[in-house]
Amino acid sequence: METTGFTENQMTVREAVATLCAKFPNSYWQEHDQNEQDPKEFHAALAKDGWLGIALPEELGGSGLGISEATMMMQTIAESGAGMAGAQSIHANVYATQPLAKFGSREQREGTIPKIISGEWRTCFGVTEPDTGLDTLRLRTLARKSADGQSYSVTGQKIWITCAQVARKMMLLARTTSLEEVRKPSEGLSLFCIDLDRTSSSSYSPGLDMRKIKKMGGRAVDANEVFFDNYQIPADTLVGTENQGFKIILHGLNAERCLLAGEALGLGYAAVARAARYTCERVVFGRAIGANQGVAHPLADAYMRLEAAKHATYHAARLFDQSQSTTSTTNIRQDAVGVAANSAKYLAAEAAFAACERAVLTHGGMGTPPSTTSSGGCASAWCRGSRLCRRR
Ligand SMILES: Cc1cc2nc3c(=O)[nH]c(=O)nc-3n(C[C@H](O)[C@H](O)[C@H](O)COP(=O)(O)OP(=O)(O)OC[C@H]3O[C@@H](n4cnc5c(N)ncnc54)[C@H](O)[C@@H]3O)c2cc1C
Fold first, then answer.
1. In what residue span(s) does the Acyl-CoA dehydrogenase/oxidase N-terminal domain sit (predicted)?
2. Residue ranges of the chain whose pLDDT lies below 50
């Protein structure tokens, strides 16, 4: 990636995070994926060096930097080879804590955020439901307030909740007024910061259950269905004002969009770099395959798409940060941040997809990950003994 124009803070983040990530080689991620094992050492290493608090206030133990620096951190993690597994193992701790830091009560902020920054607790983001998908405003999980106002009873189902197995906290979006009773679907939602209480390593408090989803890839991080059946949560888990949860969560969603755009860039740049290296090494028909324009030009095109998406991504992150600034004189509207953050995420994802697809094609048959035998040797006759075999 061309790094001209980034700030000194962003470049410091990039170098320091790359150094940390270098301690977690490809073999670490391959093993954790194959064994469906949470990369807890990676999460702990980032927490130990204070990276989980990169965009959180200094008075809560964070670094007080912004989403511009956090996006650079997530890009660097993905680009290191940790890919989406590395990114997913920590990113909710960075973005889902943004609404808590801004709208949470003093007790919520001081009681929760320092523990997330230190790595003692992990958090997950509970928004998606089986029957709502992208249409977040139609979600139906209901949090009903008790008669004495001391608690809520939560009933409903969430799906695709990343890291719920290892999280102590969930940022939960639920309806406190049913869809039928609101004037607009954007009303009646509330955000809660709740405990995912366990009675033992495998069972949960009454009214809470979860089921791990079996995946074909990205297996180092768990994805879950989470079931609530009259799950009791204290009233003081409500973040901000009741029924205003959609406005509050947008704060986390725009941050998430910037971070995920950064992660996509990381994947794309890593793919192009590896493919470019391979085009110099691989000789077919008596010359390096990179000497063929049909191989080189699609990679150059992919690189330029990433560069364009990079500008969109860091523009969105900058707008997000400026819109939060208490000192800035520019008045940046949230819908403008939304347009920039959505555009960045879309463009970066498209650029990353093109880069990854072209990188796989550039590798020919080697674009297919070799299967392995239980003894750890490579099962495929064609790559046994090859210098590209990942087992060597
Ligand atoms: C690995 C993984 C991790 C995730 N982690 C989390 C998490 O931690 N927390 C969480 O809350 N959620 C999480 N999600 C959920 C994710 O945010 C949702 O999958 C996403 O919001 C899309 O919802 P859906 O899958 O139900 O798709 P749907 O909404 O059912 O959409 C299906 C398809 O239809 C298209 N589509 C839908 N409506 C329209 C329309 N009007 N016009 C054109 N096209 C349309 C969509 O683009 C998509 O291609 C995760 C998902 C995955 C796969």
1. 7-120
2. 372-392
User: Is 202 among the domain residues?
Assistant: yes
Residue 244 alpha carbon to ligand 1 centre in Å: 23
Asked if residue 156 is part of any domain, the answer here is yes
**Distance from Cα 132 to the centre of ligand 1, integer Å:** 9
Q: What is the 135 CA–ligand 1 centroid distance (Å)?
A: 9
**Ligand 1 atom closest to Cα of 164?**
8
What is the total count of domains within the chain? 1
- Whether 20 is covered by a domain: the verdict is no
- Residue 157 in domain: yes
Express each pLDDT in 320-361 by its tens digit: 999 987 776 678 888 999 999 999 999 999 999 999 999 999
Q: What is the pLDDT of residue 329?
A: 64
pLDDT at site 133: 84
Distance separating alpha carbons of residues 20 and 14, to the nearest angstrom: 10
**Domain CATH number, residue 140:** 2.40.110.10
